[in-house]
Amino acid sequence: MKLLMSLSLLMLSIFLFASPLPEAPSGFANKTNGMTDDATHAADQAKFEETEAISDGLGPLYNAQSCRECHQNPVSGGSSQISELRVGHRGPDGKFVNPDIPIARGTEIIKGRTLVNDRAICPNNAFPASEIQERVPDSEKIRTFRVSLNLLGDGFVEAVPDQTFVDLAREQCQKNHKEICGQVLYVPVLEAPGQTAVGRFGWKDQHASLLSFSADAYLNEMGITSRLQPDEVTNLCNTVSEPNDKPGPDGLSDIDHFARFIRATEAPARDAQLAQTTNARHGAELFDKVGCDICHVQTFTTAPAGTRVNGGAYTLAPALGGKQFHPYGDFLLHNVGTGDGIVVAMLEHYGKRMYQTTWKNFSISEFNSTGNKVRTPPLWGVRLHSHLMHDGASVTLLDAILRHHGEAEHVTKKFERLKPSEKDALLEFLRSL
Ligand code: HEC
Ligand code: HEC
After folding, report:
1. Ligand 1 centre and the CA of 217: distance in Å?
2. Which helix (H) or strand (E) holds 195?
3. Residues enclosing ligand 2, CB less than 6 A?
4. Can you give the pLDDT at residue 52?
5. Vertex 306, ends 301 and 311: CA angle to 5°?
6. Parallel, antiparallel or unpaired: strands 83-90 and 96-97
7. Is the pLDDT score of 319 beyond 90?
8. Which of 38, 220, 365, 375 has the fewest CB atoms within 10 Å, measured from its CB?
9. Please, are residues 211 and 88 in contact by the beta-carbon 8 Å criterion?
10. Whole-prediction pTM value?
11. What pLDDT, on the 0 to 100 scale, is given for residue 5?
């Protein structure tokens, strides 16, 4: 009996080993990954590309009029060169403090966020005397930029179980003698009040859910309030009632269309020609050999179809469940010596409900420990990014690599010791991603 059981276990493992999970589809053809049909995907994409006006609720403070303005390269949902401004300062105890940004000649102070909006809707014809443009006070000594991120394929990232990241962080730390220890951060899921999940989106892992991120972006990038982010940043020269984003005839609001659009995108595809060269293949081996793959993890697997994620608020469709994909990132927070000192602002990202709800697994001290940490960004599609690293300040791949210190010091040293031809091969591999 025992023998029979171990035999069948052996056969099962051979079977599992021999049949790799299906690959997540990839490409830049504006096609759906199968989660929706192409017509639905095109309609959702049109929402993502829509230019919003003041009558739609745009502003009062904002950065751009459409999601597509910052997420467009090489197709809608990709990244772009556009960066945003974030500031703050340190308090007497050395802890990070959000900025106070005076507007309207100092009669109102914008608080609770680190983002400084680049645009405002007034002064305009209706409010000629309203001066609400945000400008950075000299007292806010911490200043940084954060460059736009790619969204293509993010539906697969959202579908990775929390436990995968928890296990990865633990193994990484054990295997690397505590030199490289990614941090997992439990963040509020806005559509499941009280629930948290492992953050994986944004340079600071500030969200786990694409619906939560869409509501955050709609408010903070475009000034458009929704059921998940119902409060305007300022009510000066605000004319449209809240929430600005109301459900359409199909019951879906814009944020639902944005999230569904992102979830249904195909993953970024590699440069198939470059990927096949001997040089790039050799570079892929060197990437693992020097230890880039400790953080830039090649392959992840999504939870099975039907799994409920995001605090139970979202059920994985068959097209997203049980898929393998290759992001080349661990989505964990690391200190690689590039940190800007900024801690995620609660009010900005999670709204007032942050303070009205008790969140499971939520830890403010965990958040406070992330000031100088940045998420390992996935390198899929990195060949299409002209501005690299969170601040967009590196414009070559080599410069980006050489900026890795802190936890990555050891690996960077190993990279520096490679022969010129080997460095070239590794860079060729990156250019194929
Ligand atoms: C003004 C430029 C701009 C606009 C407009 C904009 N974004 Fe972004 N987006 C960014 C930047 C910058 C980041 C990185 C933010 C950070 O982590 O600080 C980002 C990150 C994201 C992410 C996280 C991606 C990841 O893989 O980590 C999502 C999702 C997202 N945006 C969705 C949207 C949606 C939906 C809209 C429209 C409602 C939108 N964005 C509008 C600039 C923009
Ligand atoms: C300790 C974890 C870690 C290791 C090891 C590591 N990286 Fe990174 N990598 C990061 C983090 C974190 C960032 C983001 C830093 C920032 O934005 O300030 C990053 C950013 C990058 C970027 C920029 C990506 C973008 O979209 O802007 C490239 C390229 C990159 N790494 C390549 C490499 C290569 C090549 C190696 C090996 C020589 C390597 N990394 C080793 C964690 C790591």
Report:
1. 6
2. none
3. 180, 290-292, 294-296, 334, 336, 338, 374, 376-377, 379, 382, 385, 388-390, 397, 400-401, 404, 407-408, 411, 415, 430
4. 98
5. 85
6. antiparallel
7. yes
8. 365
9. no
10. 0.96
11. 53
